[in-house]
Amino acid sequence: MSLEQPCRVLIVDDSAVVRQILSEILASDPGIEVVGTAADPLLAREKIKRLAPDVITLDVEMPRMDGLAFLENLMRLHPLPVVMISSLTERGADTTLQALALGAVDFVSKPKLDVTRGLQGYADEIIEKVKTAARSRVRALVRAPVAAKVTLASPAAPIAPRPSQFRTTDRLIAIGASAGGTEALRVVLEGLPADAPAVVMTQHLPATFSTAFAERLDRHSAMAVREASDGEAVLPGHAYLPPGGKHLRVIRDGARWRCRIDDGPPVNRHKPAVDVLFQSVAQSAGANAIGVILTGMGDDGARGLLQLRQAGAPTLVQDEATSVVWGMPGAAFKLGAAEEQLPLEKIAERLLALSRA
């Protein structure tokens, strides 16, 4: 897709009302051309071949073929940027996280009631996410077996606990992510052993998604991944996410760190916001912290990462080649906030090396 041409979008949804609303919202932007709509995946398959869209919006719950099965086939055989239109429900959260694992770039939440007004309220976000998806990098899906929590390592490369090698009380890893970040965080956490330094994370997600996301990360990590509760101690071997729709900050309490749950206003249009977490870590941990920004759109976290670097903390960003969207890491790099750019698969190894330094 050239920069001068509008991105071509195919809308796939079994609801005629939703198809109409999304068509109107997207067509209102001169940078988007709605080339067609489809009521189910089988019709969509034919239209993809005929219309060659740049981006697909996809509802998960549809007749004739499950949306996830369709997405999996699409990403294996004909990878395209996909923005999911998902329900703001517990079941919808789990399904959306599965869709992101299969290669969807991002998602927009569809309200359960008054869909017309609800989607109109998300118009700017829908337009932004579709246009960002058109510039994103998608890769063909390669299905790999999901390792159980107790058998994370292969026999050839066991993850042996090395508690003596970490000054865990001296190190705190802070990570921020957005679009593409649900899978990027999984990759990083899978690379960290059970005795790694404590990790605090912010991922842009709707409030209803946080529990399902924490549980999903916990299944894939040797560390204990959980939603943070206000006042709890930050412990080695644990990774903390903000509970739904709230900011996570870190405060110092004597010789240890604690989680502080902050219900203040959105920052950079986000709640939770990466800048809120990073700024608190810069103040509470300073040079003992390590800051990382993974894939995501926008610039949330760039200023906070700069504060971490100015406080003496090592700072990294995911490189452009492996990022789904190089908005947040790119903004941080351009601001001079990042000391290093690394491909996603090298970040966990680098974090462990810096933790031992």
From TrEMBL:
Primary subcellular site in the record, as a coarse category: cytoplasm
Description of post-translational modifications: Phosphorylated by CheA. Phosphorylation of the N-terminal regulatory domain activates the methylesterase activity.
All residue ranges annotated as the Response regulatory domain in the record: 8-125
Annotated ranges, domain CheB-type methylesterase: 161-357
Entry annotated with the keyword Transmembrane: no
rRNA-binding in keyword set: no
Tree of life domain: Bacteria
Top enzyme class: hydrolase
InterPro entries associated with the record: CheB-like, CheB_C, CheY-like_superfamily, Sig_transdc_resp-reg_Me-estase, Sig_transdc_resp-reg_receiver
Signal sequence region: none
One MF annotation (Gene Ontology) recorded for this entry: phosphorelay response regulator activity
This enzyme's EC code(s): 3.1.1.61, 3.5.1.44
PANTHER family in UniProt: PROTEIN-GLUTAMATE METHYLESTERASE/PROTEIN-GLUTAMINE GLUTAMINASE, PROTEIN-GLUTAMATE METHYLESTERASE_PROTEIN-GLUTAMINE GLUTAMINASE
UniProt function note: Involved in chemotaxis. Part of a chemotaxis signal transduction system that modulates chemotaxis in response to various stimuli. Catalyzes the demethylation of specific methylglutamate residues introduced into the chemoreceptors (methyl-accepting chemotaxis proteins or MCP) by CheR. Also mediates the irreversible deamidation of specific glutamine residues to glutamic acid.
Family: Belongs to the CheB family.
Protein name per UniProt: Protein-glutamate methylesterase/protein-glutamine glutaminase
